[in-house]
Design brief:
By secondary structure, this protein is α/β, with parallel strands linked by helices. The chain is built from eleven helices and eight strands. It has helices at 35-39, 65-76, 88-99, 122-127, 129-136, 140-151, 162-171, 174-182, 211-222, 238-241, 243-252; strands at residues 2-5, 8-15, 20-24, 45-49, 81-86, 104-110, 200-205, 226-231. Strands 1-2-4-3-5-6-7-8 form an eight-stranded mixed sheet, with helices on both faces. Helix 9 links the parallel strand 7 (200-205) and strand 8. Helix 2 (65-76) packs across helix 3 (88-99). It starts with a strand and ends with a helix.
């Protein structure tokens, strides 16, 4: 159902019973992308939501995107929580755990795009040049296509149905909107990583962008109880393409 959470008009789905798990999906995605992963994990009270401007949530009109998502998580986490975040969603989950460590019983970060944690960004910065140039030139379809080629797992933008293309292009402005938080760490998350005292899963695909391993190196160096898992044959969309492997990793940790 759609309701006001954390000051945002968002679509929220809750299912099951037991310990609380909250799932936070990736940019340009929707809550359904993480439901298959939840389906192969042990039963729990699972809560999903569409990020502002995504899925069935209202358009985003704020100024600090990650902060707005953080406020949603703060409202939804009404009990000790296992937070499961993917990509940008993982950066919001990490920030919640840093700012509210007493409210998190477990933190799962799948391909977290916390670029400020990366010790080696040269290859990533070069790979992002087509996106950056298209954005500067206000060529939104080209920017969307460049972003999806780096981080997506589906067909090129030109091969998608018109309605899907239009939706994705309309969302692309939220990528640079998140940059201050994840590229520049304007909220000082890296310095506060030791705040996170719960078990933390750091999960990547071995076919993802090379910068991801560098990001996880940086996070693992600062988080006291982090366990790393690399899923063979998987890329950035590992919780969608390899849900069973991710679930197995979580259950053996």
């Amino acid at each position: 159902m759609r309701k006001t959470v954390g000051g945002q008009d968002v679509w929220v789905v809750e299912q099951g019973a037991g310990d609380l798990r909250v799932f936070v999906h990736c940019s340009l995605g929707r809550h359904q992308t993480l439901m298959p992963l939840a389906g192969v994990l042990p039963p729990a009270r699972d809560v999903f939501f569409d990020l502002p401007g995504h899925g069935r949530s209202a358009d985003w009109t704020g100024e600090a995107y990650q902060t707005d998502v953080l406020r949603i998580i703060e409202d939804l986490a009404d009990a000790p929580v296992h937070l499961v975040g993917h990509s940008f969603g993982a950066t919001a989950a990490l920030r919640f755990a840093v700012e509210h460590p007493d409210r998190v019983m477990r933190l799962t970060l799948i391909e977290p795009v916390m670029f400020a944690a990366a010790q080696d960004r040269d290859g990533y910065d070069a790979a992002m040049t087509p996106f950056i140039e298209a954005w500067k030139n206000k060529d939104l379809p080209a920017a969307t296509d460049a972003f999806l080629r780096m981080w997506g797992a589906g067909p090129p933008l030109s091969d998608m149905p018109p309605a899907m293309r239009e939706k994705l292009v309309s969302q692309i402005h939220m990528i640079p909107a998140a940059a201050p938080a994840i590229d520049l760490d304007v909220h000082g998350i890296m310095a506060r990583l030791p705040n996170v005292q719960c078990p933390v899963d750091l999960i990547e695909g071995d076919q993802s962008q090379p910068v991801m391993s560098s990001i996880l190196n940086g996070l693992a160096a600062g988080i006291p109880h982090a366990e790393r898992t690399c899923i063979k044959g998987a890329g950035h969309m590992v919780p969608i393409t390899h849900a069973a492997d991710v679930a197995s990793a979580l259950q053996r940790c």
